[in-house]
Write a structure and sequence with these properties.
The chain contains twelve helices and four strands; from the N terminus they run H-E-E-H-H-H-H-H-H-E-H-H-H-H-E-H. The protein has 303 residues and is mostly helical. The strands form two sheets. The protein has a two-stranded antiparallel sheet. A two-stranded antiparallel ribbon has the order 3-4. Strand 1 and strand 2 form a beta hairpin. Its main location: membrane. It is found in: Cell inner membrane. This is Cbb3-type cytochrome c oxidase subunit. C-type cytochrome. Part of the cbb3-type cytochrome c oxidase complex.
Length: 303
């Protein structure tokens, strides 16, 4: 903080501190010095003011005055060794930021030493190691639970990591890539290109792919519209495309809600989602540990 002060502020603070210390010394000296006609130390003094206002005054004990002097000497010593006079850093060179960096480096060294025990091991192997899973659970709580929930079951707009439905693939390398590089999911809006009646039938088809509540002719028309409008991302069979992160529409798992209105909102107005990249904040080993935790959470490790 001191490094941010300009010369004027440094001078102001230094003068203010020195003047206060000198003022304290003067006050101690002025109150402790003997006065003409004053009784001996420890004697009670009965002062009379305005003829009838009396004040009983006991002199301050000498040890108390000495304690004040020691306090001032300590303050002077502190200002020599530690920062307190503007930009003067003190002879020891101590600073809050320096102490913070030192402690952070110590914690980081301990952290690196701990995670080094998991270096060089693949995701599947780590998923079967209970010590690794326990370490990964703490990483998950710190980095993932805010979006995916403490148990990984997600919420609207945030994928459930505890099932076997995967937007970008369930292979260990794919999970590692999602964590390290992040993902950007985009569903374009079709409000301007879909006729309302056609949109209603398309939504009915998607909401119940196996048995859509549509007459045969309208169902065939909706399926044809799906092939033209949606199949490029979601596939002809609506089972999705992990390369694009396009979800499977033929099951009952919905990232943004499966009600008719929620699906309509998705189709007509689109959706956007972002999984942040973690390769700048987590080491390679930590990313593999997280991938192993998700891999195990989804039940893939039991197969």
């Amino acid at each position: 903080m001191n490094e941010m002060l300009g010369p004027a502020w440094t001078a102001f603070i230094s003068v203010l501190v020195v003047v206060n210390i000198i003022g304290c010394l003067w006050l101690i000296w002025w109150t402790a010095r003997p006065r003409v006609g004053e009784e001996a130390e420890g004697a009670e003094k009965n002062h009379v003011w305005d003829e009838d206002l009396k004040e009983l005054n006991n002199p301050m004990p000498r040890w108390w005055l000495n304690l004040f002097v020691i306090t001032v000497v300590f303050a002077l010593g502190y200002l020599v060794f530690f920062p307190g006079l503007g930009n003067f850093a003190g002879t020891l060179g101590w600073s809050q930021s320096g102490q913070h960096d030192q402690r952070l480096a110590t914690v980081q060294a301990q952290r690196d030493a701990f995670y080094a025990t998991f270096d060089g091991r693949d995701v599947v192997e780590l998923a079967g190691d209970l010590d690794a899973v326990q370490a990964a659970s703490r990483l998950f709580a710190d980095n993932c639970a805010g979006c995916h929930g403490p148990s990984g079951q997600g919420a609207l707009g945030f994928p459930n990591l505890a099932d076997k439905d995967w937007l970008y693939g369930h292979e260990p390398a794919q999970i590692v890539a999602s964590i390290a590089n992040g993902r950007q999911g985009v569903m374009p809006p079709f409000l301007a290109t879909l006729d309302p009646a056609v949109a209603d039938d398309l939504i009915a088809l998607v909401s119940n792919w196996k048995e859509p509540p549509l007459p045969q002719a309208r169902r065939a028309a909706a399926e044809q519209k799906f092939k033209v409008t949606c199949a490029a991302c979601h596939g002809q069979d609506a089972r999705g495309n992990p390369l694009l992160g396009a979800p499977n529409l033929s099951d009952d798992i919905w990232l943004h809600g499966g009600s008719t209105e929620q699906i309509r909102q998705t189709v007509m107005f689109g959706r956007q989602g972002a999984m942040p990249a973690h390769k700048q904040r987590l080491s390679e080993t930590e990313i593999r540990l997280l991938a192993a935790y998700v891999y195990r959470l989804s039940g893939q490790a039991d197969q």
